[in-house]
Amino acid sequence: MATSGVTVAPPPSGAQLPEHYFELYELAVEMADRVSARRAIANGFFLSVNTGLAALVGGGSFRWYVAAAGVVFALTWWALLRSYRELNRAKFGVILELEERLPARPFAAEWQRLGTGRYRELGRVERIVPWVFALIYAAELVRQLVG
Asked: Which of 16, 34, 60, 87 is deepest in the core (most CB within 10 A)?
């Protein structure tokens, strides 16, 4: 049954939730939120570093290792985003499992409404940006080494 867009599951068949079940659910949601916040901070850091390195590369007077460092930073950023994505996927899987026993399922309802919409598209864009920086650095590195 759905009420105002929130999935409402029937209460467990005669069984009560274990003690502190809802507190565990709240903790899982809080931990997922913290991972998302750390991901945003990491994005800000890597965007700042890569923007600075790209400015150096664009200035033209630098050593080859500045572009090489840029490639390393861009690929590290991409790998970290991948790690955060996998961690969040696991955390939200746990949250959705916990919601199966709750009378309301707000995250399940949210994912149902999102479907394959913009949220996932933004995640794809987020993963492309480090590769764009890596390609810029790689092209400049080749130009510096070849000549």
From this structure: 87
**What is the chain's alpha carbon radius of gyration, rounded to the nearest angstrom?**
22
Q: Residue 30's closest CA among 91, 71, 106, 101?
A: 91
Residue 3, Ramachandran bin (φ over 0: left; ψ between -120 and 50: alpha; else beta): beta
> Rounded to an integer, what is the distance from CA 43 to the centroid of its chain?
9
Is 103:8 a contact under the CB 8 Å cutoff?
yes
pLDDT band, residue 93 (cuts 50/70/90) = very high
Residue 107 near residue 95 (C-beta atoms within 8 A): yes
DSSP 112-131: HHHTTSHHHHHHHHHHHHHH
CA distance 23 to 70: 44
Residues 55 and 58: their CA atoms lie apart, in Å, by: 5
